[in-house]
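okkk here we go again. third time trying to get the S-adenosylmethionine bound version out, last two times i messed up the smiles copy paste (missing a bracket lol). double checked this time i swear
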Amino acid sequence: MERVSTQASAVPQVGDVVELAVGEVVHGGWCVCRENDTGWVLFVRHALPGERVLARITQSTARFARADAIEILAPSPDRVPAPCPYAGPGACGGCDWQHASLAAQRRLKAEVIAQQLRRLAGIDVDVEVEAVPGDEGGLEWRTTVSFAVGERGIAGLRRHRSRDVIEVSRCLIAHPLVTAAGVTGRRWPGWEQVEVAVAPATGERGILLWGRARPGPDDVAALPADSAQVAGRAGRRTPLRGHGYLTQHAAGRDWRVSLGGFWQVHPGAADALARAVLTAADPQPGQGALDLYCGAGLFAGLLAQAVGPAGRVVAIEENPAAVRDARHNLREWPWARVHRGDVAAVLGRTGLGEASIAVLDPPRTGLARPVIELLSRRPAGQPGLHRIAYVSCDPATLARDLRLLLDGGWRLDSLRGFDAFPMTHHVECLATLSPGVGPRM
Ligand SMILES: C[S@@+](CC[C@H](N)C(=O)[O-])C[C@H]1O[C@@H](n2cnc3c(N)ncnc32)[C@H](O)[C@@H]1O
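finally!!
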């Protein structure tokens, strides 16, 4: 039997249904409902700020609970019917904001960025989250999708905060070339994950199978006629078909990207970020530039073109396949060098050299502390670094790192947000910093 309570003050149990006045949005696709007298907090999904909802508790601890809104008593004007039948309480965990208009999604993401910067960096900023050019209503954009294989061997999508696999006919945010691979609803016996990556500009598609060391003849016969590989447990790849990479197009040229290597998943994002990073970093002929966490070398290539043969670009990346791609992609600019290894370790050996500009694009975990310390150690009276362009896919780690960079003598000049992941809570940010103290924004 469900217990329905009209207030969330008594700590509810999993399965209880509570009536909530939904408060502000927080990082991760949740809205928050606080009980001030107890200090207890409830995080609710599938709701929007300002709504009154009935919510079922999905997790309960002494300090907080999680819940799914199951009935909307007083809807927000931002609410829309979710286009995807698999988005909703207890269902697919891939999207967080299908029930909000796109304009509202961008507003919510901007609020989260501002909130993280205020709480973790002590900075007050007004930020706008911009649509990525070419976005078609927030659907059919995702060019890489990892489908999980469930107990019945069928590929689908994971339930929110669960290992369960939901069998789906299609994923509405997946790019049509991903959908055309026909991975969902099919049996992939023995595999754990089937990753489909596509290159919309060239129409190429690749499939990466995870979970077993070796495929059987039936596995290979069942694959669509794509470039395909198996990812072994130790990260070793076994080619099954084709050359194992895709040709992506951005900033007016082609980029080789290995299956499983990093590339922006929204077809418009690499272009939008490339333009924004060039504007932010403003590289000039003859300058030295760093591209840290360079992936396949997109930003390093743009920096190399801008600084020209009198300049120098140092790119650092630890993924061996991405390093090979970057070296291939940068081969026409011999003044751009790619170092393979952990950014902190490589910079620890080489220092910043004579770089004037650093482009940083770390994974979700943000910058390692030694990297921030090196960036902050600028010798007095020498030219040194004068611009940082920091691309981040996590506002929380960005805010943490900005605080440390500001303490290390940097000043935040601008902050932009990009809706590179519509329907989800994820967002890309670009922060531009220059030497100095105190607020400039
Ligand atoms: C967000 S991607 C950025 C890639 C590239 N800037 C782009 O836009 O295509 C982050 C990259 O950092 C690499 N990486 C993660 N941790 C690293 C580390 N500690 N040192 C060097 N590279 C790392 C990943 O392999 C990945 O290619």
